Amino acid sequence: MGKYRKCIIASFIAILILGLVQSGLKVWAEHFIANGNIMAATTIAPFHYRYLYIKGLGQFKRKQCDAAIKTMERVLILAPNEWDAKNITAICYIAKGKIEKAKQIWKDIIEQWPHYVSVRDNLERLNKYSAGISSADK
Question: What is d(CA 111, CA 114) in angstroms, rounded to the nearest whole number?
């Protein structure tokens, strides 16, 4: 029984240490990103962009669009093909009234990934909305 207890305790300590190391790597990656050293950030924590993505998603859900845009831009530096981050950025631009910027982001996504149905639908709805406004102005 003593061997198993030692093994369990050792496993628990290893998990704790790994958690602390991972947290430390995230802090260092954040530091390097903030200072513009993206290469160092991706070397230290290559999957760190997922942490940033979740942070930006939370900001988006709390309707903190300025913060969400900044966070998602950092995600896109680390993972340029993170289509969901681009989509959230475009939606935030819509909320801020920057329609053309959102349209351009969605067009870029569709060019690179034509099967992203929700982005295509968003762009179609925005185009219909924009057409309705421009015809009402005449």
Answer: 6
DSSP track, 19-38: HHHHHHHHHHHHHHHHTT-H
CA atoms within 13 A on the CB side of 68: 23
pTM: 0.63
Query: Within a 10 A sphere around the Cβ of 119, how many other Cβ atoms?
Result: 23
The torsion angles phi and psi of 116, rounded to 5 degrees, stand at: -80, 90
| Confidence grade of residue 106 (pLDDT, cut at 50, 70, 90) | very high
d(CA 27, CA 58): 19
Element (H, E) at 86: helix 83-95
63 phi-psi bin (left φ>0, alpha ψ -120 to 50, beta other): left
Residues 52-69: tens digit of each pLDDT: 888 888 889 999 999 999
What is the CB neighbour count within 10 angstroms for residue 67?
Answer: 16
